[in-house]
Amino acid sequence: MSSSPVSWPKSLGVVLEMIKFEHTLFALPFAFLGMLLAAGGWPSWKAVGWIVLAMVGARSAAMGFNRLVDRGIDAANPRTRSRALPAGLVTPAFVAGFVVASLALLVLAAWELNPLAFTLSPLAILVTLGYSYTKRFTWLSHLVLGLSLAGAPLGAWIAIRGDIAAAPLALAAAVLLWVAGFDMLYALQDEDFDRRSGLFSVPSRFGTVPALGFSALCHLATLALLAWVPWLYPPGLGSGYWVGWAGCLLLLAYQHWVVRPGDLSRLNAAFFLANGALSLWLFAATAVDILLLRS
Which of 25, 74, 161, 276 makes an SS bond possible with 80, Cβ 3.0 to 4.6 Å? Predict the structure, then answer.
């Protein structure tokens, strides 16, 4: 390995690619959705900016920490051994510094938003970082990952309102099960490796077909919770939201149609395309409902 120093901008670029920074898109629309419901419209741009920074900090810290603590596992897995840390493209010390900076950004944003957001920030950190260890001892790790992303809509609601209510809790539960469901599908790629390595996941514990079934149940529950949200939200939600709900139904159905036992060739399409579209679609439809159809 070359001993030539690597500039920090290049190392930062490697880290951002390593954590798939662009996939912040998965959770950010749900944060915007919680924000929109809390405000009953579009809040101040200052609040929007701090919510975005909190989300960027939380996800960047979680992904960087996951890559850091899993670098030995990633090196042993043929699917992941080319990732930046196992390949020596960036140092563990630089990634650790990136994680600390990301956590500082999260805490600063929470401080700027309101006292409850700041008070709950250590709990958010515990959940988002703790997920990385759960695959070592429980196949319920998918639910812990879901819990970490469930903080997006609930945290945004708290950022605007400074309280907790039934509607954002139902939305957070929907996100939890949505993420757990698609993470079970994603874990199918490593079913054999996880079983040989003593790692825990639904596929490694129960097999491919049961994992597909558990994932489908999670996504059915997701749809039920999303359908419940309008009943828990005092102003109610109209036709725009239900168009968004119908789009979620179709996108989840698409995932389970293309991912089949013995054929994971379209898994990336299901994971990245469908899930990115789902969160964007639901937020956009709800925004139309609240900002345009009510005005």
Answer: 74
Low-confidence residues in the chain, pLDDT < 70: 1-6, 21-23, 25, 269-271, 295
Sign of the alpha-carbon dihedral angle for 166, 232, 40, 252: positive
Task: Tell me if 201 sits within 8 A of 190, measured CB to CB.
Answer: yes
Which residues have a Cβ under 8 Å from the Cβ of 81 and sit 6 or more positions away? 74, 75, 87
User: What pTM does this model have?
Assistant: 0.94
CA separation for the pair 203, 62 (Å, rounded): 23
Angle at the Cα of 233 from the Cα atoms of 227 and 239, rounded to 5 degrees: 55
Cβ distance 162 to 135 under 8 Å?
no
Tokens of 285: 């439809």
The pair of three-digit structure tokens given for residue 58, joined into one six-digit string: 């939380």
pLDDT of residue 293: 84
The Cα–Cα gap between 190 and 136 comes to: 14
